[in-house]
Amino acid sequence: MALLSTDIVSQVTNPWFSTGYLTTAWTYEVRPALDKHVLITLYSVVFGVLASIPLSLIARRSARLETFIIGLTGVIYTIPSLALFALLVPYTGYTQTTAVIALAAYTLVILVRNVVTGLAQVPDDVVESARGMGLGPVRTLLQVEMPIALPAIFAGIRVATVSTISLLTIAAYVGVGGFGQLITGAFRQNYHAKLTTAILFCVVLALVADGLLVLVQRLLTPWTRARA
């Protein structure tokens, strides 16, 4: 009975969710964590996309290069996040740069594979028609192949974004991490409301980001809606 009473008191004094915590901590804890989480996620995914496109173009030159590059990105993804952070810290320190480099590297296994897959789905006769109309390799890539590959590319971006939002919580160990900072702080303080709030915001942020990317994809690929 004594143990039961202690549990009841703990739930009252230290609830798992509290609107009071959210309103009082919004300005100095929750909002800064949200801004940091969004910013680092954006940087990581953008740099991942920028790196994945040239890697994918190199990979599609031959089957051996494709196997090597996709295999290499897969090896990077298998490195535990804490170990990768530890490898980068001597060079970039306990900074946001460390988190961005590591998270961008993790996105490559998803993005490179999807870019290569999307470009491979472009019909050969469409490429030949573009070249027959006088388009060079660069214009054919930008005006014909990339637009056709956009659905596959955006599918990879969506997965990479949601994955980055999740992995970013671990970056709290290098001094950044947005909601990861709140989660680790909540564990140290045994603060249930802070822990629940940080987790819920991570989930909501992932859902919102995925929804926005779906909307952007629909705006950039109107022909897919017409075909459906």
Entry keywords:
mainly alpha, 228 residues, elongated, disordered N terminus, single chain
Care to describe what's here?
The protein is an all-alpha fold. It is 84% helix and 0% strand. Helix 2 packs antiparallel against helix 3 and helix 2 (19-59) packs across helix 5 (96-120). The relative contact order is 0.14.
User: What is the SS-derived class?
Assistant: mainly alpha
Taken as a percent bin, the fraction of beta residues is under 5%
Radius of gyration: 22 Å
How many strands, what sense, and barrel or not for the largest sheet? none
Count of alpha and pi helical runs: 10
Distance between the first and last residues' Cα: 62 Å
Mean pLDDT: 86
Task: Report the strand count.
Answer: 0
The helix/strand series, from N terminus to C terminus, equals: HHHHHHHHHH
Runs with pLDDT <50, length 5+? 1-10
Q: What is the overall shape?
A: elongated
Brief summary of the model shown:
It is built from 10 helices and no strands. By secondary structure, it is mainly alpha-helical.
Describe the secondary-structure layout:
Layout: H1 2-13, H2 19-59, H3 63-78, H4 81-92, H5 96-120, H6 124-132, H7 137-167, H8 179-189, H9 192-220, H10 222-227
